[in-house]
Amino acid sequence: MDLIRESLLKKSKASKKDQFGRVLTFSALLLIVIVVVSIFWFVASKGLATFFSNKVNLWDFLSGKNWAPGQTDAHGKPLTGALPMITGSFLVTFLAALIATPFAIGTAVFMTEISPKRGAKILGPVTELLVGIPSVVYGFIGLSVIVPTLRFLFGGSGFGILAGAMVLFVMILPTVTSMTVDTLKSVPRHYRESALALGATRWQTIYKVILRSATPGILTAVVFGMARAFGEALAVQMVIGNASLMPKDLTSPASTLTSILTQGIGNTVMGSLENNVLWSLALILLLMSLVFNIIIRAIAKKGAI
Question: Using CB atoms within 10 A of its CB, is residue 66 exposed (0-12), middle (13-18) or buried (19+)?
Fold first, then answer.
């Protein structure tokens, strides 16, 4: 009886494998959580040192227009105004998304509704190729083509918000396009059949039924592309001009959070004011990525409802 009871209570190989799988997946999940929390803690501790250790006023930091951390104004306050970089980042991001959205929607509609076979055969590989191109290549092309073109058309140096937006537009286009294609494919087929049965033309079906049904997914794709654009560094740095000034127009040299970070982080001493304010810029970037993710989740949840 004892042997029978022992054999019944003994775990089988399948249960041991199942338990091992649960432990493995839980460990991976725990590791990801620890990494994310560690990143937030590290960046926050460095970024907040500007306000707690160096006694920089938060409002002056966010609203100031003069950026020269190693210098002070007439009142002895350090020139740590981050508003030019914050403004430049948002302008470049929104302008790139504004340009990319109609192209992405048009390409996705062609690939899913107009000519699915030809679109999947031609545009699909092209979109995947654009994703794999390194950002430095985009920046070099922008420096060699876009900047001289803008200089010829509008005068000036050619560097600025518009040049950065044009480069980012090409960079985020495949992301927005591929996500929009997946969204349009997820629209139930009977939506199309019902609209056509009621006498709607193909374009009426696309515009009034398919695109409206896919609006939450398209908005998610656009916000995801904006998050990608907001954090881009090297390509933007090569064409925006890297001038820490408030943008006067779209064709004057400007800067973004990422361009100032990549330009200055290697030339400062850890723990100094010059280094801490750069970590504060990094903290803004991190918080904005969190905001973009919250927006994406909110849109996806609304679309699911």
Answer: middle
